[in-house]
Design goal:
The protein is of the alpha/beta class and 268 residues long. It is built from nine helices and twelve strands.
Amino acid sequence: MKVYALVGKSGTGKSYQAQNLCKELNIPGIIDDGLFIFENKVIAGISAKRQSTKVGAVKTALFHKDEHREDVAAAIEKINPAQILVIGTSDEMVRRIAKRLGLPEIFETIYITDITTESERAIAHKQRHEYGQHVIPAPAFQLKRQFSGYFMSPLMIFKEWSANKGNMTEKSVVRPTYSYMGDYKLSDKVFSDIVEGVARQLEGVDSILRVITMTAMEGVEMTVLVCMKYGFNMVEQAKQLQQQAASQIEKMTAFNVNRFDIEIRSLK
């Protein structure tokens, strides 16, 4: 396995440039802020950007916890990529990450100042320090579970490399907890109101009796007690309620819906 490193100060666009660099050097794997990303998929790890403090973020990026380190190291060993890119803010940091994960010595170090212009780094710095935005080199749907309850924006980049062919890459923009001016929480009534709003659009649903909600780091689990109307296909109506309500909750709240159960309690 050949190990490359991408080094640069915080907020200089390393994660944004990582995919382009990997394509140029034919590197399929990336280690970035606690995550192991392989061929544009999050394989293992915990994102440092999910942590509530900067200290916690740094520890996560360095694989401080043994369970985290072992999980990622095992995934790397299983896939055994021919080449891998380790991203960090200093030479010492990338060396520590490589050693912590049991990777070979770094073959080549690329510095962000060598592959970007001063104006590009200034834009990245503004996005980070003024808007609190961080880029993760993976599609938004790959990060959905880790960032349940966080507002993410997919960043689609299209690069034309010949007259007839092109290549699409997707990165994701997130605002970590420690970048917020304050926290936000959603009352259970918000979820209930969304479910009831969807139910009113379905002719076979008479009423929502109760909405039970449990939230966790990876998303929300819901149980909805329903009264259905006589004369309609209850299974089909329940399925529509389940799918449409879950979709609206994810769209409106940014929470990942892990489970959405429906119990038909009565019939009118």
